[in-house]
Amino acid sequence: MPHCTKCGAAVAENTAFCGACGAPQAAPGTPAPAAGTAGHTQMAENVAGMLCYLLGWVTGLVFFLIDKRPFVRFHAAQSIVLFGGLNIITYILGMFFGMGYGWGWGWGAGGFSFIFLMYRLVELVAFLLWILLMIRAYQGARFRLPVVADLADSIFGKN
C-alpha cells in the first residue's frame, strides 16, 4: 500500500491528495520517476530501513526525524533504542574496566577480568544484531526484537 510522501499516512492507489494532511500525491496514471532521475526524491523503504542501522543510533535518529513512513520510523526507533542502550552499557563497562585496571584488579590471574569479558560479549552481540537487523530491514521485514521493539513503541509511539 502506498504512503503519503509528506506525513507517511497510508493512501489508496491513484489518490490525488493525502486524506490525513492534504499533500498532493502523484497524479493518477502517472508513473513514478525512475530512481536516479531528477524527479525521484525518496529512496526505497527497504533501503531507508537498512540505513537506519548503518551507524547505530545516530542514523536511526536522523531517519526518525526526516522520514515519516511507518516502516522506516519503526526501524529508526528500534535502532535508537537498541544501539543507544548498547552504547550506554559498553560505556559503563568500559569505565569499570578502566578503573579496575588502574586499581590492579583489571587483569586478574587468568589474564582478563569478568568485566572485560562482559564488555567483549556486549560488543559481539551488538555486531551480530547490527548485521541481522540490516539484512532483515533490506528484505522488507519488520523484524521486532522482543524487549527492544516494545520499549521503542512505548517511547516513540506505535509506528
Offer a few descriptive terms.
5 helices, 2 domains, mainly alpha, about 160 residues
Count every helix, treating DSSP H or I runs of 4 or more residues as helices. Answer: 5
Helix content bin? 40-55%
Query: Given the helix and strand composition, which structural class is it?
Result: mainly alpha
Task: Give the total of domains.
Answer: 2
Spans of at least 5 consecutive residues whose pLDDT stays below 50 are 35-40
Describe the structure.
With 159 residues, the protein is mostly helical. The protein has helices spanning 45-51, 57-66, 70-103, 114-138, 146-156. The protein folds into 2 domains: 1-42, no CATH class; 45-156, no CATH class. The longest helix is centred in the middle third of the chain and has 34 residues, at 70-103. Residues 35-40 have low confidence and may be disordered.
Kindly summarize this structure in a few lines.
This protein has 159 residues and is an all-alpha fold.
List strands and helices in order, with pairings:
Blueprint: H1 45-51, H2 57-66, H3 70-103, H4 114-138, H5 146-156
